[in-house]
Design a protein that fits this description.
Structural class: mainly alpha
Helix content: 40-55%
Number of helices: 4
Low-confidence stretches: 1-7
Strand order of the largest sheet: 1-4
Number of strands: 4
Number of domains: 1
Length: 146
């Protein structure tokens, strides 16, 4: 039974949604670390590049193509990679300084962190809702109900 469930969940959009949820979880951790260090002198904010992730995910989906049996592997980059078990691994980079450093030597804007938090939360909620719909559909198919 476990093999059947794995076979079903590694197809279609489910791997892309799970990868998106993993990225969002990692990004939330980075934002939380930044907010926790908001008033730490000389702290340099970290980031996970959303556009870079989206491009890597798009490329992984293109490589996978219509063959849903192929694993979805996000290519290694500066911030992202897929490990041997197929899990997304991230390495945050230092957020570039936009214009000037603040008076305490940080490059952290709490307003920007809150905007990033809201964006990540909405993306996470959307991916979770879509994944729930996919899994509900599989559950109905397995039970033989419409």
């Amino acid at each position: 039974m476990a093999a059947l469930v794995s076979h079903l969940t590694e197809r279609g959009t489910i791997p892309a949604l799970v990868t998106t949820l993993s990225f969002n979880q990692a990004r939330m951790k980075v934002i939380a670390e930044n907010v926790a260090n908001w008033q730490t002198p000389d702290y340099r904010a970290k980031q996970l590049d959303v556009r870079g992730f989206q491009a890597a995910l798009r490329d992984a989906l293109d490589v996978r193509g219509s063959d849903v049996r192929r694993p979805l592997a996000v290519k290694s980059g500066q911030e992202l990679r897929t490990d041997d078990a197929g899990r997304l691994r991230v390495t945050p980079s230092e957020r570039p300084v936009d214009n000037v450093l603040f008076h305490d030597g940080t490059n952290l804007s709490i307003e920007r962190e809150m905007a990033d938090l809201a964006e990540t939360g909405l993306t996470h909620e959307l991916a979770a809702t879509l994944l729930k719909g996919e899994l509900d559909g599989l559950r109905k198919a397995i039970r033989g109900r419409i």
